[in-house]
TrEMBL record:
GO terms for cellular component: P-body. Residues 157-193 form the DFDF domain. GO terms for biological process: deadenylation-independent decapping of nuclear-transcribed mRNA; P-body assembly. The keyword Nucleotide-binding does not apply. Its main location: cytoplasm. Keywords: Cytoplasm, RNA-binding. The keyword RNA-binding applies. It comes from the Eukaryota. Belongs to the EDC3 family. InterPro entries: DFDF, FDF_dom, Lsm14-like_N, Lsm16_N, YjeF_N_dom, YjeF_N_dom_sf. Residues 71-153, 189-209 are annotated as: Disordered. This is Enhancer of mRNA-decapping protein 3.
């Protein structure tokens, strides 16, 4: 009977022009095929009129939101506006405040009223809600059969939702119930049980962050003095990591090189190793990868190499050969001598194959500042060279050129140096250099540890993964 639907809440879709109406069924006229809604809402907004009547021809879709079983009393939630859902959603315009929500599909329902036209019968789609638990059973289908309604499923259409859900959640009150001290204590107990780091006194705490060069597992304390020498020099240096590198005397330096040569580390091999390390340092000082790129082929750096007729000069020529191989414009200054060392002659022969420029007069050196000057004029033993005219002329040119100077294997501080350097590169172990030597660097020329032990030096390599490292005054 039509009277069975009085008091039920329905949603009527009248198409895109008229929109969607929701309200309580107040009257159903079978003869005129009309239905009236009390307390209507139009597209989620309460209508100004108390009642709206619809014809079956205007109804595109009708959905039942709440079955009141003939009760004509106004629902408890009539005063609140229904919430619209996105267009095309099968739930259309459902009222989320309605207590009749199911967690699973409710099935399909047709409004089967005798005498009604087919256009008035509209499908009732399913709706869902998250208010039910996962262990609740799927509600049984409920519908109209032969004009009689089956027994309502109280699980789905029972009492309304708990009124306490409408109240605001007390965040501060619930946060006060959280015992943070007890939770942190439980976490600490679990970490100690698993062997993890725990909170303790500042003396017992282990740093939670480490640098990229720090070892996390420190099985034993670090020994920073890993090199001891029988004859201490006048200075001590230290590396970036804090390792102590003592200076040695020139006499101990000569004994170390002699022992290395007896064991097969010949002068030629030392010259090659020194040239490679010095050229690597020079390339870094010239700009490194920022300077030596295919885009800078038109801006080759210029290096002036000042060499004397001794082993230090041969080391400089070896460095100049490697620099020339790396597209550096090298200008080698070496005065003409009647007789030179074999090592110098051999290095000159190799250098002449690189295309580098060799001059014997200071007048042929460039007048404009160059990118770098490598000073190899000084010698550890032949101090009389400083009185030679070519030496004084070359030193004066270097001091007036205003280019930075790198001294290669400079002598100890007891000897006077005519050219003030910005950097100095020492070999294997440093000598006690003067203040004019600038910042001191150390290069590894490949002397084995047992050779150090043979001359009374307890040695552990301070170089790590590098062949050239900076030294700081301790």
């Amino acid at each position: 009977m039509a009277s069975d639907w009085l008091g039920s809440l329905v949603s009527i879709n009248c198409g895109p022009t008229l929109g969607v109406y929701q309200g309580e069924v107040a009257f159903v006229d079978q003869s005129s095929q009309t239905i009236s809604l009390r307390h209507p809402f139009h597209n989620g907004i309460k209508c100004p009129v108390p009642e709206v009547t619809f014809s079956a021809m205007d109804i595109k879709e009708l959905k039942i939101l709440d079955i009141r079983n003939g009760s004509t009393s106004a629902p408890a939630h009539v005063g609140s506006a229904p919430v619209a859902v996105p267009k095309g959603d099968p739930r259309s315009m459902e009222n989320v405040n309605s207590p009749q929500h199911c967690s699973k599909s409710y099935g399909e329902r047709h409004l089967e009223v005798p005498g009604q036209s087919k256009g008035f019968r509209r499908r009732h789609n399913s709706w869902s809600s998250s208010s039910r638990g996962a262990n609740q059973a799927t509600p049984k289908k409920n519908g109209v059969k032969n004009g009689q309604m089956k027994h309502r499923d109280d699980e789905c259409f029972g009492d309304g939702m708990d009124e306490g859900l409408d109240t605001d959640f007390d965040f501060e009150g619930n946060l006060a119930l959280f015992d943070k001290a007890a939770v942190f204590s439980e976490i600490d107990t679990s970490e100690r049980r698993n062997g993890a780091r725990s909170r303790g006194t500042p003396q017992e705490q282990t740093p939670s962050r480490y640098r990229h060069d720090e070892n996390i597992l420190e099985a034993k304390p670090i020994v920073y003095r890993q090199i001891t020498v029988p004859q201490h020099g006048a200075k001590e240096y230290c590396t970036d990591s804090g390792l102590v590198v003592p200076s040695i005397t020139y006499e101990l330096h000569k004994r170390l090189l002699s022992a290395a040569e007896r064991h097969g580390l010949s002068l030629e091999r030392r010259l090659e190793m020194t040239g490679v390390c010095a050229s690597q340092m020079a390339l870094t000082l010239l700009g490194g990868p920022n300077r030596f790129t295919p885009k800078n082929l038109h801006q080759h750096p210029t290096v002036a190499l000042l060499c004397g007729p001794h082993v230090q000069g041969a080391q400089g020529i070896s460095c100049g050969r490697h620099l020339a191989n790396h597209e550096v414009e090298v200008i080698l200054f070496l005065p003409n001598f009647v007789k030179m060392l074999d090592s110098v002659t051999n290095e000159l022969t190799l250098f002449s194959k690189t295309g580098g420029k060799q001059v014997s007069s200071v007048k042929d050196l460039p007048d404009t500042p160059v990118d770098l000057i490598i000073n190899c004029l000084d010698c550890h033993e032949n101090t009389f060279l400083m009185d030679q005219p070519w030496y004084r002329a070359a030193a004066d040119w270097a001091n007036q050129n205003r280019a930075p100077v790198l001294s290669l294997d400079p002598p100890a501080s007891g000897q006077r140096q005519a050219v003030e350097a910005k950097w100095s590169l020492s070999l294997c172990l440093p000598l006690a250099l003067a203040e004019g030597a600038g910042r001191v660097y150390l290069c590894d020329i490949g002397i084995p540890r047992q050779v150090f032990q043979e001359v009374g030096i307890k040695y552990h390599s301070p170089f790590g993964c590098k062949f050239v490292i900076p030294l700081h005054s301790a």
